Amino acid sequence: MKKKQLLIGGGIAVILLLLFGVWNLWFSATKVAFINYQVISLGQISKANDNSFIKISELSTDDLNRLTSYDMIFINAMGLRITEEQRAQIQKAADGGLPILTTAATNPANKIISLDSIQADTLKHYLSNGGRRNYRSMLNYVRVYIDKKRFSVSEPEAVVKRADDVLYHMNPKSPEDEELGFNTVAGYNIFLQNNGLWKENAPRIIVTGPMGEPSGLIAKLEETGNMVYPIRSMHSFIQNHGIDSVRPSAIINMAHGRMGDYIVDYLAKQNIPLFSPLNVNRLVEEWESDKMGMNGGFMSQSIVTPEIDGAIRPFALFGHYKDEEGLQRAYAIPERLETFVETVNNYITLQRKSNSEKRVAIYYYKGPGQNALTAGGMEVVPSLYNLLQRMKREGYKVDGLPTSPKELEQMIQSQGAVFGPYAEGAFDRFMETGKPELITKEQYESWIKKSIRSDMYAEVVAANGEFPGAYMTTSDGRLGVARLQFGNVVLLPQNAAGSGDNAFKVVHGTNAAPPHTYIASYLWTQFGFKADALIHFGTHGSLEFTPRKQVALCSNDWSDRLVGALPHFYIYSIGNVGEGMIAKRRSYAGLQSYLTPPFMESSVRAIYRELTEAVKTYNNLLPADGQAVLSTGNKEALNRASLMVKKLTVKLGIHRELGLDSLLTVPYAEEDIQRIENFAEELANEKITGQLYTMGIPYEPIRITSSVYAMATEPIAYSLLALDKLRNRADGQVEKHRTLFTQRYLEPARDLVTRLLADPSLVSDELICRITGITSDELAKAHEINKSRNTPQGMMAMMMALAEEAPAEAKTHADMSGGIMQADQSVRSKRNSISESMKEKMKEIAKGMNPEKAMELAKRMGASPEALKKMETGMYKSHAVGMNTLAKDTVTMKTTSRGKREKADSDKFGGMEAMMKVMMSKKKEYSKEEINFALAVMEVERTLKNVGNYKSALLESPERELTSMVNALNGGYTQPSPGGDPIANPNTLPTGRNLFAINAEETPSESAWEKGKQLADNTIEMYRRRHNDSIPRKVSYTLWSGEFIETGGATIAQVLYMLGVEPIRDTFGRVTDLRLIPSAELGRPRIDVVVQTSGQLRDIAASRLFLINRAVEMAANAKEDQFENQVAAGVVEAERVLIEKGLTPKEAREMSAKRVFGGVNGMYGTGIQDMITSGDKWTDEQEIADAYINNMGAVYGSDEEWGEMKAGLLRAVLHNTDAVVQPRQSNTWGALSLDHVYEFMGGMNLAVRNVTGKDPDAYFADYRNRNNVKMQELKEAIGVESRATIFNPEYVKEVMKGGASSASQITEVVTNTYGWNVTKPDVIDKEMWDRIYDVYVQDSYGLGTEQFFRQQNPAALQEITAVMLETARKGMWKASEQQLNTLASLHTELVEEFGSTGSGFSGGNAKLQEFIAGRVAPQHAAAYKQQIQTMKTVQSPDNKNGMVLKKDEVSSGEQGRKNALNGVWIAGGVLVLFVVLLLVLRKKRKDN
Per-residue confidence at 1442, pLDDT binned at 50, 70, 90? Predict the structure, then answer.
């Protein structure tokens, strides 16, 4: 019995095992894994899967140990990043019999396929044609023919040719089915009518692009009253005129790359706004918690390149969620969808609403108190007035506008003011007389509920207390919003974005939540005033610098919430493209560019004429090249000439700026005199700005001429010199002596520009040949070389052109993994090389393309006439048996029961094959000399032909700016343009356009690399000259966004080359890898670096910081160097210091190679400016250095540690820093005129000095002249700038043509001089302060400077005198008693007459106020103190409306207790007064 039971049991077990085996073999689920597939593509495949016996999974490259648990693996190798170990894992699984299909392998090593060619080809056809039917058949094919399971599966259908319909729409009756396709607009319109989606006279919106899941967007747009036209290929839709019958109000492009110039031209012509919402391409919760938001290649394709098309609102709309099977799916995030659709509808409302009904809010920026309104390079109030006048003429309701800009300015100072935290009395009077908008708690909280998440608002309360906070409040609990309202237009000051006394953090970013008054102002604009549009007026405000995420913002980011769904426009200086990108991406602003101030010649040559004549005498006595040594007599004459030069140099004070001695008995050496000569010549040719630009007002004719000279003269002169050098015609003395260059090249070039300004039609090929000294054949060759270099070649050309043609589905197709323009960054491919898999990919995209289309594509790719002819011959010859056969076979392909194709088709490709042969032919190579020849010729030709255009653009720009702003307010399209200094890049003109930047992934560009190498070598050479031939051990570099954009990443090139590392470019020209330059090739030691990045650069080029981090690691680990490796030594030194500070050896080792640092908490600046200018709050520079090191100590070199604060690391890394380098790419600013220079460069210098005990060398990397980049010592640069501007009477006269903002320019320069005195004292001499005193206090030029300040901006002069007195009080300027008394007298006189400015040096520094009062007569001191007290003191609470101002401080526990205690005392005091009042009344009654 027992045996029988065992037999039965065993039999059952065998049967079960057999059944299990049979089940597994024929009936179990087929498990299919996809590696590195786009979520959108995988979502479509998942939707197509209707078979519960086919299980789809997404497999990460981190989980390759799970490979063998699947029955089939699909790998998309485009952009796949795997290690050698991971690649080996995949290969082992394939060798073991696991079916694997890899597509789009840009790295041949990744092309792992274990299927036979028939199976692989079949699956590729299903994939490439896309669509649910093909995906469903593909999965069934896998189950039937690869997994060999017949149960619960349908026979796979033949491949259905990829849909070539123009429009598509979800089937309203069956939403889960395949989308419906339409080939005509008329057919689509019938569909809309039949399904209740047609709305007469409704706005029509086109939706296109590959990077979103559009169904939710389309449905919401339709739900809110629009008709939506989803388009597969915009280029074809426009080209075939389908768009003409739609006449859209807006286009929404779910972008991944550019749409192209063709579409830009169409949008501009038809005035259609282009929106570009973002897909964050990951799980929503991951994105929301990410500090960066988006970076690298995905950011470039989603944000940067669409901006070149003029796209606006880079608003994060799409994200991922996980479905029940664990697959990520793309969707429109509901909360974001509501806001985005409302935004689009609001722009369309601007198109349809009459101007008289539109309500517009305009924000301006001004300093506290009586400070003038400020905007980069702009005379603000007259500009604002001109815009308001224009709006009035356009029909806007602008009631009560004053009759002049001056009256408007007075109104702003009284009703639209901003106050420092110490100006309680001024607050009080403003609340009583300034007519602020008063907001109740109920209003505010209702707006908060609509806009701000509860956790965000909790941060506001934690930082600022409960509503109304402690700023701009009344005793009855209301909150004041300063504003001036003129009918339907309201002007508002941008309040401080933080509270407390760190004003710089307020402007350029702080991690703290903004105060109630800041939030209330924007929410009132949205919900109280109910604005139709928001304008920020002038460069720049603080909204874009509020916390947190850098780009692709979420609903936890303040600027995202405060802008809301309002159409937003930012009037922005063309010269500040770097910060403009932050405004664009972090506050969703459509930029409206405006001109820089006009350029003028310095006109100081006469001042230095005697010196230059003495130099000429000296040079004439020098022996000619190759001559014998001078005779004794000639030597004596030469020495006398040298002493004369020295006498004049010392008299003029130039020796201080050049670091030369002043001993008049010892002659200068030839090298010293050469420096003096070049310094004087640079001064004479310096390009400067004076009077600020007023929007809407053209430059004066003389300033148009001088600006065109600045734009055109040097490019011609330096290009002619380059040609002469190539032909060995240039005298070696020309480059040594700038006076010779001026005589031989600069002056003739200027004369030529003068002639062309008078008659631009003089330009001809004959003139170009005559000027350059070349033949017509040589000119033609230069054109040929230039075209060859600038035309995309090979793979790049094909992919760019095909990207425009491929429908949206193909672009997000599995083969594309991240889009057509993604590339494998692990392979070091040569430019224009192309893999077989990429050829196959392009064939798939171009299937069915007729010869005409292929020819058109080839032309767009830049094919030469000869190449087009060859292509045409080959194409039409093979067309019948090629493309038509392929198209037919693709549709009719069938598979037999054995899985074999009946027809082979992939080798017959006809026209496309011909096109590929032509386009993939090897690019003609040219020598370096030929390229330089062509560059010089083209520069001359381009400049000559554009002299007239430059003049026209400058003339037209002011009107274009106003017209463009009005058009934007009408919901129109603003044309895109590059930004930057128009002298360095005239393509920035005309203005009135929407600025864009560069693709960071392509940096450093090839030209930037050459410039960076040159400047790195120059840095080493300058250091050697100053330090007995030793080289720097470590160099600090500052990275700024404007420099990065305008130079193509030249400073990054300097950093890389210092380290001895060079960039490697991929097929598309992107820098995706690095190469360690061999020590022998480098020819010098690797030099260590430390990099400080501004927040703006960090936000736009995070991937370049990663690149630097990798470069440091490579250089530190370099072996077999012939020279000492300073990078390796620096890592060891940092590790030693960190261990001494208490870190473990492991921690120290991991941190010691970090070299990229920036602001903590995502700050955009250093946070030291306000500390520096608050002289009463620090006594020793060490305090500022410590603050700098703390504020800039966040690490930004890797994803994992992005923005993390590493205590003590920056201090450790600063050891052995010998030089500090600051980029300078713009002619619109210098070390004295821009505060950020001393903030960053000076701050780093101060930090290094306090860490090492040694003042590092300080150099400018000067890119202002693209034909003559150079390194310049900081002190010399300050000398040139001060002599050409603030000490130049012509400059002062030009400034005095302006108004309040122009006067503020001088104040800023004086303040920045003080900043340099603190951070790098050796660059500011006593004589400099003496000259400032002479020119602006004593009016040594007799120009009436004091009268100018009194009339235009007395606060500016009040501030200048305060800065000078504080400099003296701090012991940094040894001023005479007379100077101090004169300054104190003038300062107190201004305060008595005009009141205290309530700002900066003169308002909040009690020690300075005592110092000033002690230097004037008692009666003046008393009056002065009374004015200060009036500004500071709150009025008694018996004023009108019961308004009592509360003190503005940072809310903290301690401060809260103080406030509570104060409240008790106040309440007690009120009670006592009340009792006394009762007693008095009672007594009176008794007396009666």
Answer: very low
